[in-house]
């Protein structure tokens, strides 16, 4: 038979004649033959079995399900099904076929009876088109051929690339205002009144950053840091955060409309996944009864407790990163190098971010295994339910892995560290970090920038490089002449047209059920970085846009050139990922509101302007209303009140020094200004989130999920179907 007719390839090691593995392999192949499958054997260093299903199976499938592969007026009009559909059906049958001992193919693969299974990349016209017009760097700005991707890889992969393309396109509208906000911050780099006051504060001495002979330092020494902070912490950031909350909603609503148009053109708008799975079960075994839904409150409770335990572990790892930063800052401030002393906090933040990235890489593998274990305990009924359950658990673990440290930097850094004379300490020894007098938002920016850059450069390079190296290694391994032992009565394998095709596919990197999942997860985590803390990092949409332009072609090249053909999956949407994205959109509103209200100095500056500044007290039109803010935001501390074990430097610049907080100089209790700012922060947070959520709801209502044209098409189709049924049941006129 011609190689194009083979649906699947099974690969096995050469086992001893009469061994248990050989007997199990023959039994499994025997069951397939009884079902009418055609099997071709080619022996090399491995044994390859080409599997082709009988046409009767596909006729039954077409006649049971009237879908995009078969819109037929009657069962007798069955026709050829697309290759992607054939592969999907044969994959289901292979995985659900049982030997007389009730063993399935996956268990046989675990026992090494079979090594692997895969469909073929075939030398067909559509593959050549995709390689020429899709999996090429020269097409990086071209529209993707979604219809042809669907025909070759199935609907699930096509919808992933359709979603990724749509997401990348709309990132343009987020990246442009992000760049404008960043550019506006650079334009006023040196003109901020707050930055000027810090730069001019040459006679303002701040409390030491550590307890062991750390020097008192001039506030003006951090002039550059203050100017950099103002690039991200300005009025434009508030507007951009509000814009991104609306953008996230509009993006999802427009995607729903685009998806509706696409799946309607594929005739999958009303497709039922459960019905299709039941149909394939009946085709595989007409006597098999469907597996019933099950639910156990005890099992659900155990799973929930184990998941919470895993989340607690991940939060504990975030605490460990905090401890690292605290200890690193303490050691750097005691260094003999003046540069290390002055930049101790910044270096601790940067090295902490790199360590956080390494933690993400390590814990991703752990999180995957834990999520798989919890899914086994849950025992979902179908593959789709298993995939959804795994997605929710794994993404939740990944979210805490990626964002726990960022949440600490954004909302806790510098707010739980106490004050001079009464510092909060780790293990009773090391002081927690303090915020810079101009705020903590730059720390959050540095953390996000390093993690995003590392994830989008090193991870993307390794994502392509590792499969490429494996592929080259496999080609090198198979370059030597191979034995071509033959079974009696077989044709000469050297002349077999299938052998080269099967071997070339076998040498490619293996794919599994997580291959597409990993691509989705990577993009959804990126979407989280792009939206949740975008107030601190307005360049995040631009980095995401540039990354995605490369990612689309990178994924295309991996699928076409470096990996075996992915088993096509039918789908009418992106599944549980849509609910995940909607949850991220809500978190983005909350996160950005908290960043502006708590992390940023936007609210304290506004309170100062309207209540305590020269503008608030009198009508000073020629004075910047933030004049005097820095002095107002610093409290005074007496040297004699330091803790007894604190070792101060020999030279003291004065008896009183300053630190960032709103406390009285007498008893170090909170001042009235602190409570005014606290109330303003809370009021702004409530107002911002309610306004943003209302705008999101209005946008979701204003932009219908399903276009009018699609609704009318579905309505017309239903009318025609009912009219056709009515015509057959009405009595004929005489």
TrEMBL record:
Give the gene name: Ano9
Keywords associated with the record: Cell membrane, Glycoprotein, Membrane, Transmembrane, Transmembrane helix
Q: Which residues form the Anoctamin dimerisation domain?
A: 84-146
What does the record give under GO molecular function? chloride channel activity; protein dimerization activity
Q: Keyword Transmembrane helix on this protein?
A: yes
Q: Which GO terms describe its cellular component?
A: plasma membrane
Q: Would you indicate the residue range of the signal peptide?
A: none
Residue intervals of the Anoctamin transmembrane domain: 149-716
Query: According to its UniProt record, where is this protein located?
Result: Cell membrane; Membrane
| Topology with respect to the bilayer | Multi-pass membrane protein
Looking at the UniProt entry, the stretches that span the membrane are 157-187, 237-255, 302-324, 344-363, 394-413, 524-550, 574-598, 678-703
Q: What is its main location?
A: membrane
- Which named protein is this? Anoctamin
Q: Which family does it belong to?
A: Belongs to the anoctamin family.
């Amino acid at each position: 038979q011609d190689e194009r007719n083979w649906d699947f390839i099974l690969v096995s090691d050469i086992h001893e004649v009469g061994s248990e593995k050989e007997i199990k392999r023959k039994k499994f192949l025997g069951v397939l033959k009884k079902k009418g499958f055609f099997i071709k054997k080619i022996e090399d260093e491995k044994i390859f079995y080409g599997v082709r299903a009988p046409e009767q199976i596909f006729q039954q499938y077409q006649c049971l399900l009237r879908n995009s592969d078969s819109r037929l007026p009657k069962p007798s009009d069955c026709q050829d099904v697309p290759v992607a559909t054939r592969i999907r059906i044969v994959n289901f049958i292979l995985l659900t076929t049982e030997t007389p001992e009730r063993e399935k193919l996956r268990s046989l693969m675990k026992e090494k009876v079979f090594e692997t299974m895969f469909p073929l990349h075939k030398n067909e016209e559509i593959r050549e088109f995709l390689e020429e017009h899709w999996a090429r760097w020269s097409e990086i700005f071209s529209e993707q051929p979604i219809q042809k991707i669907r025909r070759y890889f199935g609907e699930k992969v096509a919808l992933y690339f359709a979603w990724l393309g749509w997401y990348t396109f709309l990132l343009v509208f987020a990246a442009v205002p992000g760049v404008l906000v960043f550019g506006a911050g650079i334009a006023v780099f040196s003109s901020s009144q707050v930055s000027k006051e810090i730069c001019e504060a040459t006679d303002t001495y701040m409390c030491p950053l550590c307890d062991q002979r750390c020097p008192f330092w001039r506030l003006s020494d951090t002039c550059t840091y203050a100017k950099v902070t103002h690039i991200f912490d300005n009025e434009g950031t508030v507007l951009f955060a509000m814009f991104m909350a609306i953008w996230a909603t509009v993006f999802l609503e427009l995607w729903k409309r685009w998806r509706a148009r696409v799946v309607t053109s594929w005739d999958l708008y009303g497709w039922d996944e459960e019905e299709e799975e039941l149909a394939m079960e009946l085709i595989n075994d007409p006597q098999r009864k469907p597996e019933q839904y099950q639910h156990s409150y005890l099992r659900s409770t155990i799973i929930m407790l184990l998941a919470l335990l895993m989340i607690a572990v991940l939060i504990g790892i975030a605490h460990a990163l905090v401890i690292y930063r605290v200890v690193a800052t303490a050691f750097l401030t005691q260094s003999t190098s003046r540069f290390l002393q002055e930049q101790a906090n910044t270096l601790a933040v940067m090295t902490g971010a790199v360590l956080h990235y390494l933690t993400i890489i390590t814990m991703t593998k752990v999180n995957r295994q834990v999520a798989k274990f919890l899914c086994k305990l849950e025992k979902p009924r179908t593959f789709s339910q298993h995939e959804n359950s795994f997605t929710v658990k794994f993404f939740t673990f990944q979210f805490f892995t990626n964002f726990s440290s960022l949440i600490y930097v954004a909302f806790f850094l510098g707010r739980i560290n106490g004050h001079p004379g009464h510092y909060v300490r780790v293990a009773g020894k090391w002081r927690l970090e303090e915020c810079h007098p101009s705020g903590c938002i730059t720390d959050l920016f540095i953390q996000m920038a390093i993690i995003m850059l590392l994830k989008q450069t090193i991870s993307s390079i390794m994502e392509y490089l590792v499969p490429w190296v494996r592929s080259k290694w496999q080609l090198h391994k198979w370059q030597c002449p191979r034995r071509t032992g033959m079974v009696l009565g077989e044709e000469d394998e050297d002349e077999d047209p299938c052998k080269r095709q099967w071997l070339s596919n076998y040498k490619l990197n293996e794919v599994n059920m997580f291959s597409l999942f990993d691509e989705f997860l990577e993009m959804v985590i990126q979407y989280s970085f792009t939206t949740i803390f975008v107030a601190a990092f307005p360049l995040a949409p631009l980095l995401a846009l540039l990354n995605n332009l490369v990612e689309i072609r990178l994924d295309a090249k991996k699928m076409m050139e470096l990996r075996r053909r992915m088993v096509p999956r039918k789908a009418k949407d992106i599944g549980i990922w849509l609910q995940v994205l909607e949850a991220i959109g809500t978190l983005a509103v909350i996160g950005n509101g908290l960043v502006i209200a708590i992390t940023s100095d936007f609210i304290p500056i506004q309170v100062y302007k309207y209540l305590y500044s020269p503008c608030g007290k009198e009508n000073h039109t020629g004075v910047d209303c933030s004049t005097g803010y820095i002095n107002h935001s610093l409290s005074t501390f007496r040297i004699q009140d330091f803790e007894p074990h604190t070792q101060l430097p020999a030279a003291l610049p004065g008896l009183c020094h300053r630190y960032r907080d709103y406390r009285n100089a007498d008893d170090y209790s909170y001042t009235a200004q602190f409570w005014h700012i606290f109330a303003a922060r809370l009021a702004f947070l409530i107002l911002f989130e309610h306004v943003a959520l209302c705008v999101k709801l209005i946008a979701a209502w204003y932009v219908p999920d399903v276009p009018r044209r699609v609704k009318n098409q579905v309505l017309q189709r239903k009318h025609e179907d009912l009219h056709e049924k009515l015509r057959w049941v009405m009595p004929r006129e005489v």
